[in-house]
Amino acid sequence: MAFASVEPLKLPRLGRVRSARVELADGARTMVHVARYDTATTELRVAVLRSQARLEPWCAARGYDEALVGGFFVRPDALPLGEVRTRGVARRFVPFHAPWDGVRACVHVRGGVASIRPRSEIAAQPAGDLLQAGPLLVRDGAVVFARADDTEGFSAGESQFDSDITDGRHPRAALGLADGRMFAVACDGRSRHDSGLTLEELAELMVSLGCGAAMNLDGGGSTSLVSGGRLRNRPRSAWERPEPGGRPVSTALLFLPR
């Protein structure tokens, strides 16, 4: 078990965020922020932030109260890295290298219903919204991420990233789906007080929340969770180096009232 105790992980009320410092199995601690949404009253959408923007002010300018960082991006042109579609239309993006482009995890929203699956299990030209990131953390209520297996090629294909994103503890973000609920999760890291999480620890966290499916999103200095119109986590770009407001990002997941 990655956590010394799951007591701090009590669920927030629907439509609210809860922040708690959790203790990991080796005694390290980190702050975790969890927002919970009812799928009957909340719609998930994918948004593209043209030319990039910090998530909190971008949301404030458009009247969005609830949002989570989306997928990765490439420098210097800030295009999304991984497939992005909104309302069935493919947006400009840089594809993941083959063969990983065909297997990396996606969140797909069609007819107001969200699912998290490998890209190979989704239609080639899907309707609705789609965001590709990964790796897949949880499926059928169980942890499926195993770094040694590298089934989605994040270690083998690390050349498209700043580093191997599967290695070590870092600030991270994830989307989780449960029966009738959605979870937006972010954790702090890169400081003496916040260790961050490994992807295995993040996956176990999502299972402890009751998620049947969950996927990793962009992390590090890009980690951003906006709830109630405010940025709830504390982004850091490097060790003990704050990233005020979070790094500008290229895509986001919006949680909107139906």
TrEMBL record:
Domain Phosphodiester glycosidase: 67-255
Statement: the UniProt record of this protein carries the keyword Hydrolase: yes
Organism of provenance: Solirubrobacter ginsenosidimutans
Keywords (A to Z) from UniProt: Glycosidase, Hydrolase
The protein's name: Phosphodiester glycosidase family protein
InterPro entries referenced in this protein's UniProt entry, alphabetically: NAGPA
Ranges where the record places region Disordered: 222-247
GO molecular function, one term: hydrolase activity, acting on glycosyl bonds
